[in-house]
Amino acid sequence: MASLLLLLLSFLLGVADVHGENFRICAFNLHNFGNSKANKEAVMTILAKIISRCDVCLLQEVRDSKGTALPKLLQAIKRFDTKNQYTLLASERLGRSESYQEQYVFIYRSNTATVRDQYQYPDDLPGDEDAFSREPFVVRFRAPKTYIKEFALIPQHTTPSNATKELDALYDVLQKVRKIWKIENVMLLGDFNADCDYLPKKNRKHVRLLTDSSLHWLIADHSDTTVRLSTSCSYDRIVVHGETFNKAVVPSSAKPFNFQQEYSLTEEQALDVSDHYPVEVLLKVTGPSAFNGIVSFTSYCTVFHIFSFLIFHVLL
């Protein structure tokens, strides 16, 4: 009986692996991440759990001026998930003021994705110089198991008071990236502040990122990406360029990840981690899980029949 149950357990674990094969891209505003948070064990544990769910995770609002908080975060992730290899790629410190600067940071699984190129947008477009407070740090990834194989990620954390202008200027960044890398599979993601008072409905017609039909906004306007119960805004977004990229997305997979609910945290505990929920999307991969869950469903049915068979014969 023990050997039969072990066989069943092995099969169940195999099914779980199949179900989790899709490639996950995330964007997470860490809300003033630096040494203070890095020295809180409970916060770092939750961050490790959240980030290790992702094949590629963009972090924003990283304010690690001493350069010690990010290494601690990476080590916490590596300790939590020993099955994957994680690498960190960070931009320079960005901001108009010396007293307030942030970095864009990508933490990714080097066993599922590799960096092909990187590009710090110079923000020198004639007639619109210095459009961004924190100009995008663009990274081109290769992910062999995904359908599209390669894609570029354009991150942005907009300034709330200037969100409309910066979102529109992201369109120029997109065109520049498409031209220099000759690539069409481009995703724009991050804390866009693209909702509520920061992006009034009357301003949307002035944002080319919204009016160009080749761009697909994957996080719905009604999604709440904020932790505080007193707010309900879809600030954090994921946008993909082109039909090829859009078709490579697992349908209905783009959403905020409510880590407060997932890890049974109080609002206060969740706010210690961040005042934003991460947003995420799954890319289809080649292999069994590419069939949009059909294989997983079939596998679970098979497990049910095998389990029934085993129980029947054990009882006999």
From TrEMBL:
Disulfide bonds join C196-C233. GO terms for molecular function: deoxyribonuclease I activity; DNA binding. The keyword Signal applies. Keywords: Disulfide bond, Endonuclease, Endoplasmic reticulum, Glycoprotein, Hydrolase, Membrane, Nuclease, Signal, Transmembrane, Transmembrane helix. SMART domains: DNaseIc. The chain crosses the membrane at residues 294-315. One of its GO terms (cellular component) is endoplasmic reticulum. It holds the Pfam family Exo_endo_phos. Belongs to the DNase I family. This is Deoxyribonuclease. It comes from Cyprinodon variegatus.
